[in-house]
Design a protein that fits this description.
It is built from five helices and ten strands; from the N terminus they run ββββαββααββαββα. By secondary structure, the protein is an alpha+beta fold. The strands form three sheets. A six-stranded antiparallel beta sheet has the order 3-9-10-6-5-7. Strands 1-2 form a two-stranded antiparallel ribbon. Strands 4-8 form a two-stranded antiparallel sheet. Strand 1 and strand 2 form a beta hairpin. The radius of gyration is 17 Å and the shape is globular. 22% of the residues are buried.
């Protein structure tokens, strides 16, 4: 259930949203430190890990905790799990693709090679807080996306069509 500034967690507790943008280094073993504030939010969701899937709309990774996973499972409840193609499609896209990435003692996770390749991550990872989830990007790939998202938000603010591409608007 949506709240003004956060989410209602599975135990009825307020779960703060993932906010802000951070950049951390990917080490030679594929480990990256998850921002401390993001780890705190996941801990409130009784997670010693995070769920991660390759985005099916961009070269990025989608990461989330139990709160969003529970909401997704509730969404699936509207389908018959044995006779619905929609159930299979949505479950395949999220549940079958999800990987649980455990934190080490230093707050790092090991990004699997297939996820690193999907996002085109090389040396650094940008963490983008988006409320119920956060995304992980290669900085060079995220830069134009960030500009376009801000342009679309500006167009919405100015009464424009938020669904149209606004790449021509300069910052």
């Amino acid at each position: 259930m949506q709240k003004a500034y956060g989410l209602q967690g599975s135990q009825g507790r307020f779960v703060p949203p993932f906010v802000s943008t951070y950049t951390n280094k990917l080490d030679a073993k594929g480990r990256v430190s998850i921002p401390a504030s993001f780890r705190q939010i996941l801990a409130q969701q009784e997670m010693g890990a995070l769920y991660c899937i390759p985005s099916f709309v961009s070269p990025s990774l989608e990461a989330f905790g139990n709160t969003l996973l529970n909401q997704f499972q509730q969404r699936l409840d509207k389908y018959d799990p044995l006779f619905s193609e929609n159930y299979d499609d949505e479950a395949q896209a999220v549940l079958a693709a999800a990987q649980s990435l455990n934190f080490d003692d230093e707050g790092r996770v090991r990004l699997p090679d297939d996820l690193i390749a999907h996002a085109g991550i090389t040396e650094r990872v940008v963490f983008v807080g988006l409320g119920q989830k956060f995304q992980m990007w290669d900085p060079a790939r995220f830069e134009p996306v960030q500009r376009e998202r801000i342009a679309r938000a500006r167009a919405l603010r100015n009464g424009g069509n938020g669904g149209a591409s606004c790449a021509h608007i300069s910052p």
